[in-house]
Design brief:
The chain has three helices and eight strands. With about 160 residues, the protein is of the alpha/beta class. The relative contact order is 0.17. It has helices spanning about 20-30, 45-50, 105-110; strands at about 15-20, 35-45, 60-65, 70-75, 95-100, 120-125, 130-135, 140-145. It folds into two domains: about 10-80, 2,3-Dihydroxybiphenyl 1,2-Dioxygenase, domain 1 (Roll); about 95-155, 2,3-Dihydroxybiphenyl 1,2-Dioxygenase, domain 1. It is globular, with a radius of gyration of 18 Å. A four-stranded mixed sheet has the order 1-4-3-2.
Length: about 160
């Protein structure tokens, strides 16, 4: 029968992003989104070379937890990260998505906090969902989705 990958992989552990300023990103994810800082550490240039295949730089990392997910953010220390704005159509661009109870009030709260929305709120009654994309300080898309029990409740 052969190797069964489903018998080996257990779960998603975390998702990660490279950021320009770790403290600025921590402010966003902790103070604006309410996640908790679990751990912060430095990986040496040797670890970065071996573990990531990126020679010549060390990394400063932080793990954030909340809402059933772990997000790892990292900043290159010795060699700056490449700070080129990415199109949402760029192959490989990702996002993190959270489900919410009240999307309209969350959007208002985030905008009061200076968080920029990347899109207008999308409403799809036939799928019983509404969502919006916000931008973190580095332009990483953070999606917020609200699900409804009935089509007519989507507003």
């Amino acid at each position: 029968m052969g190797y069964q990958v489903q018998e080996n992989i257990q779960a998603v552990h975390h998702t990660g992003f490279i950021v320009k300023d770790l403290d600025r990103s921590l402010d966003f994810y902790v103070n604006k989104l309410g996640m908790k800082l679990q751990m912060r550490w430095i990986e040496t240039a040797e670890q970065c070379d071996t573990g990531m295949g990126v020679p010549g730089s060390s990394l400063e990392l932080a793990q954030l937890v909340g809402y059933g997910v772990m997000i790892e953010i990292a900043r290159f220390i010795d060699v700056p990260g490449i700070d080129t704005p990415l199109s949402p159509r760029q192959i490989g661009v990702g996002h993190v998505s959270f489900t919410v109870r009240d999307l309209v009030s969350l959007i208002a709260h985030l905008e009061e906090q200076g968080v920029k929305m990347a899109s207008e709120r999308m409403i799809v009654p036939e799928l019983k969902i509404t969502w919006v994309h916000a931008l973190d300080p580095d332009g990483i898309r953070v999606e917020f989705m609200q699900f409804f029990d009935r089509c007519e409740d989507v507003k």
